[in-house]
Every structure is written in structure tokens, then in C-alpha cells.
Amino acid sequence: MTRAAAExxxxxxxxxxxxxxxxxxxxxxxAEHTAIRRAVELHCLAPGVGADADAAGRLTRTARVLGxxxxxxxxxxxxxxxxxxxxxxxxxxxxxxxxxxxxxxxxPMELRRAARIVVQxxxxxxALHxxxxxxxxxxxxxxxxxxxxxxxxxxxxxxxxxxxxVREEAPKLLVTRYTAYLAPELRRGELGLDPRVxxxxxxxxxRQLLTGSPRGAxxxxxxxxxxxxxxxxxxxxxxxxxxxxxxxxxxxLLLPTTDRPPREQMPTPADPLQADLQYxxxxxxxxxxxxxxxxxxxxxxxxxxxxxxxAIYRRFGPGxxxxxxxxxxxxxxxxxxxxxxxxxxxxxxPVALFSEVLVAVDHIAGRGDLGLLTELGEAIARxxxxxxxxxxxxxxxxxxxxxxxxxxxxRIGLDGKAKVQRVGERAARLSLERQVTPSxxxxxxxxxxxxxxxxxxxxxxxxxxxxSSEALGDARDLYGVEWG
Length: 484
Hints:
alpha+beta; seven-stranded antiparallel sheet
């Protein structure tokens, strides 16, 4: 940080004490309010820069950005105005501490310290996003760390020069130097008005803290950290976290509590799909989980529910079902002959009730990590693929199963939009979104149906990953599918 002696005053109210640095045509000064002797940070145009310069617009935008979102993690705006020549200036709270760029060294930072810092960055970023602001070029020098209390650190976001308002005509980001923190779409020249560009930047910051470099190797990191970074730093925005909330869930897993041990203290399933479910289930246990109750609820077709009950009976016998019904009293109403079949045929089965059934059977007969649900889905596909999907072309092929994904979902759920996102050589991305009451349990069951369905359709091998879950606040249930 460049510091130099400064002379003079601004608007008769602020005495310039020290120049902190210069960014283009904007200078930053440590200053003092002449009346109350309060230290402040003052941003003004460099000498010779006129009031109609582009930099003047950026200064005005800084005042609007930081003045329009209130959060303790944002550098506060104290005042703004124009000097005697009509040139704008902005006055902000004075910050004491070091930037993240000064603190982050070539050696990895301790995991919990890094997570605490990034959680604060994300919470401040959430306030900006809720105010309709996207920063677009957040880097380590834009994050200030102040020491408070007994060694605790408080984060302040201070760099908003490239910020844009999502709902207004935004200026194109002037990129003078491409950095690792810049999202790929910004490097391609896009405006970058999607909040996910900021999540990419924070992901790279976290990677730098945990590895010592913005492009550091991830192999030595815990599984929870690798998963968080893979999502946040994905080149494709659709595969990143949909919002700050999802990223917060993931980073919070790096801060174990008495109620939530570290993931590394739990046995991780060898099956990648079951490991995905376990991880997503853990994300849901963090304090940053999604909130709110929908006005109505999603429903399922009765047939997949009955096939699931059949799979539970065949695998575990009536004793487990009886114990399940003691945990979920309404489960008994799902059985044929209970008198509710006509209603369920006409209106469908509430997803919430079916999810309770799946949670209960996993608790009673599984490992408590939802892995059993994929096995039940596979059992359904093994015995009832044609019963469940009678209109698939015969003989069923893997390609037909994948291209028929919207049809498959229509036979399971009564709302939600299923799409084949993309198809490659024996690989695809399948998505499901706009569910009224999305369910992680249901997503795990469906993943099992798809995986076994591919094998029943002639694939020699099949793998399904559950990349994201709408039930956790992600934009969609996203399945990564590969087959041989």
C-alpha cells in the first residue's frame, strides 16, 4: 500500500493527513473531520481529473453501493459531496488492520481461521446481493482484517470500484489486468451481472487461504473443502452455488460444532453417489440452511411410492415397516387397502410425507447418511423399470433413458421442470428445478433409479453424481451421469 504525506483540505470539512494509495484516477486518503476530529478515509479524484470523468461516476457508484447496504462487514459510508470545483468525493469509516492480500502468505492458513474469514466475507456479500449489487472483481486487497477482542478478526469489504447494480444499465467492467479471482465470463467480456461471479471470486480467495495460492493443489485438503471449492470455482456458472446461502452452508462445514463433528471423523461411503448424499445431508445441518415454508406442497405419483414400499418390504421384511409406521404414523395410509388409495391416485402423495418415510427407513435400517435411499432406488429400477416408465421405446437403451429424462420425472413428480442440460459421449447433465417442496431424500432415490436404469438398459457400467440439491437452496437438483 502506497502512503505519502498529503496536504490541504476537502470542502472545508476534511483535512487530508496521508495518501493511502491511488487506483487509476481515484486517490485514497487518511483524513480528519475538522470539527469532530474523527479519523476517516476519503476518496477523491486525482489532481487534474475533471468532474465529468469516468472516475467521477465510479466514485458516485461507490457511495451508492456502500451506502445502500448496511452490514457490519462492509466499510461504512460517512459522508459524500463535491469539492469547490464540483468534483465528487466519498468519505468512509477509517479501517485499521491488514488486507487479506497482506495476511495470506505462500503457506496454507489454518483451516478454521480461513473458514471464519470466508464466512464473514460471504455474509457481507449477501447484504450486497440483497441490495441488488454485484461486486464483479473482488480480490484479496478488497478484504480488510481488523483485530478485535482476544485475537478475533473482523472482516470488512472495502473495494467496490467495479460494482454494478443488477437492475440498472451497468458499465462494462474495465479490466486492466486479468487475475485468478475474475470469473471466466468476465474474462470473456460479459457484463457479469450474475451474483455467481462474486461466488467464484470468493472461492478463489478460499483456495488461496487453504493452499497458499489462488491456483493451489487441492489433493491435501479435506473432502468438505474440496467439494466447496469445486462448486464455487466451477467454470460453468450453472454448476456453482446458486447463491451465497449455499456457499455458506458448505464453508460452515469447515467449522465443526459440538453437534456436528468434522466430516473427516465420519466414515465416507466408497460409493461416490452415496458420498454426495452424505455431504449434502451434512450441508443441510448447518445454521445457514434454507428457510421459509412454501404456501403449497409438491406431490408424487402413487406408483413410485408403492414401488418404494415394496422394496422396503422385500429387503427388510414387515418388522421394519411396522417400526417405520410407529415413527411416521401417516405412513400406514400409503398402503393399498388403507382406504386412501383413491385420494392418492387423484391428488398424489405429499412429498413431505414420502420424505419422512425415507428418512425413517434410513434411520431404522440404514446408516443415517441417506445412502440407503440410492439402494432402494436401484431396487425399484431392477424390478419395476417398465412398470414405472411404460412408454419408453423398446428395447430400452441408455441414450433413450437419458433423452427421456423429462418423461421419467413426469412419471414420478407432479411438479418441477426436468431438463437434459447437455449430452456428450456417454455423459450427461440432468436437472430438476422449480419444485414447490424439493426433497433431498427424493433426489437420492431418483439418482438410484437412474443409475440402475442405465444398467437395465444395457450399459456395462453407470455412475450418477448428485452435484446440487434444490432442497438446500441450490438452483436445481443437478445430476452428473456417465455410462459405458
